[in-house]
Amino acid sequence: MESNSNQLLLAKCKSCGRFFVPPVYMCSECGSAELEDVAARGEGKILSYTTIRVPPLGFADQAPYEIGVIALPDKVNLTARIVAHEGKEIRIGEGASFVEKDTSGAYWFKVSN
Predict the structure, then answer these.
(1) Are 32 and 57 contained in the same domain?
(2) Which domain holds residue 26?
(3) pTM of the model
(4) What is the tally of structural domains in the chain?
(5) What is the pLDDT along the chain (113 residues), one digit of tens a residue?
């Protein structure tokens, strides 16, 4: 799997077509180890989110911040940091767009306008 912070890459099973969030080394649906990188659209919907006010070690300077589950059209859900425009409240079911995958491997999405 390649790493590209400007593109949301998913792993796709060449055998059954199921998508996964990398890293993954074998398909949990059919057992195939033949996976390929596929660029995802990067648009999804917020399924759930929470505001982290008491962060784990190493994240104290970032609190409070939002983290949530984003449902992608490829039938994949991924956990991501969510950023909203200043003064805008995040809502369940609202659209979110991929921003980047940072050097720590965290996915970042912004709330759609």
Answers:
(1) no
(2) 9-39
(3) 0.86
(4) 2
(5) 344 567 899 999 999 999 999 999 999 999 999 999 999 989 999 999 999 999 999 889 999 999 999 999 999 999 999 998 877 889 999 999 999 999 888 999 999 86
Query: Which of 89, 93, 46, 87 has the alpha carbon at shortest distance from 67?
Result: 46
Residue type, 76: V
Starting at the edge strand that comes first in sequence, how are the strands of the sheet with 35-39 ordered? 19-20, 9-13, 35-39
Residue 27 to residues 9, 59, 63, 81: CA-CA distances in angstroms?
A: 16, 33, 36, 26
Q: What angle do CA 41, 96, 16 make, to 5 degrees?
A: 40
Note whether 47 and 67 are same-domain residues: yes
**What is the C-alpha separation between 70 and 97, in angstroms, rounded?**
9
102 and 57 fall within a common domain: yes
Distance in angstroms (rounded) separating the CA atoms of residues 5 and 103 = 8
